[in-house]
Amino acid sequence: MKNVVIVGNIADNPFVEDIAQHMTQRIDYSDMISLKTFVNSEFCPRFILDEDNWDNVGRKLEGKQILLVSTSQNDISRNDLAFRNCLIARAAKDNGAEKVTLLEPDLYFSAQDRGPRPEHGVMGYKRDEADFKKFDGQPFSARLYADLLKASGVDEVFTIHNHSTSVKNIFLDRFAGNFHNLQPADVYAEYLVGTDIVNEQSLVLCAPDKGALPFVREVHAELKNPSIPILVIDKERADERSVSMRISDKSDISLAELAGRDIVVIDDMVRTGSTIVKACSLIKTGAPRKIVFLVTHFYTSQEGREKLNNPVIDEIVVSNTIPQILNRDMQGRLRKKMVVLRISRWIARHLGQNIGTKTLVVRPPHYIEDMSSKNPRWKGALGPLFNA
User: Residue 242: pLDDT above 90?
Assistant: First the structure.
């Protein structure tokens, strides 16, 4: 870690602290950079260098790799966080940094992954007139964000479980292949078989739509149990809030065969929870023993908490890519059925293999289970540090 400097774009972010700890940075990341905001509201980051040394001014980061960790934060908009990234990257390069790597687990503007013209986004399907019209008058924001990061000095980008074909194509192109979309399938498989959340003998994996299916298959492969069936739900969206669902012909198992089984519905993200609750309601008609919703990026909106509190979902497993989900107040009533997997160890392992710290050894387990004592499965085994 001698030549790697880990910083964040906000102060007091537990996610950044975890990454720095697992990558053996001994100095607190907040002591590596000053995140100043002037009276006129302009943001001006400053790397904290040797104030008494007047030698090599503007070049004190020469030979250093900067790892900038950026996550969503309730009190700062994603727009502000995105521009903070650009300014921090520029500060690094303007002071001689050899390389700037951005770790942004929930990549900003990914939902704006296409625009109103055919050249605006290469999707995994043929876009129709309605799809182009949906973006009429809007910017192609995902491409603009990639362009801004590149122009600011970012050399490499890491994200987690981004299923947008367009975003992946954009970032791979802009960063000449130095874009890494880390897939946590191995972590989720490790958790499903290593805990008492489900019975592997009765397990069914479910893709709530065709976009989720490739990742569900990755988790299935990591489980190394070909007898586990995959349930696929076909979803047709009439508008932003209205969808119809049915069990797909591509499923390995029928609705009638779900009785008494444990179903794990897997998706990359959830905002309002409307479609997931509808999918789980359909599954519930098959009389399963348990329905678990496993999701990587969880937005803690009041609407989402209220909808996901629906009894059709027995338990929710999320990662800490959006770290405020660790806050019990953010979990609200969902705390009684929510588990957060802190996956910073797993991320540090991947980073160590890519940014010049190949000697870093991070042993399993690659997650830390965090749950409230309100959850019936809580046993207190991890102690007060991780349970409350």
Answer: no
Cα–Cα dist 378/20, whole Å: 28
The rounded distance, in Å, linking the Cα atoms of 220 and 211 is 16
Q: Residue 114's closest CA among 72, 148, 165, 149?
A: 165
Which spans in 95-223 are helix H? 129-134, 141-152, 165-174, 185-194, 213-223
Q: Of all residues in the chain, what percent carry a pLDDT higher than 90? A: 77
Q: List, by residue range, all CATH 3.40.50.2020 domains of the chain.
A: 4-182, 185-343+364-371
Q: CATH for 4-182?
A: 3.40.50.2020
Kindly state the average pLDDT of the residues 256-267: 98
What is the CATH number that goes with domain 185-343+364-371? 3.40.50.2020
Q: According to the model, what pLDDT value does residue 67 have?
A: 97
Neighbours of 22 (CB within 10 A): 18
Residue 382, pLDDT > 50, answer no
Between CA 387 and CA 144 the distance in angstroms is 41
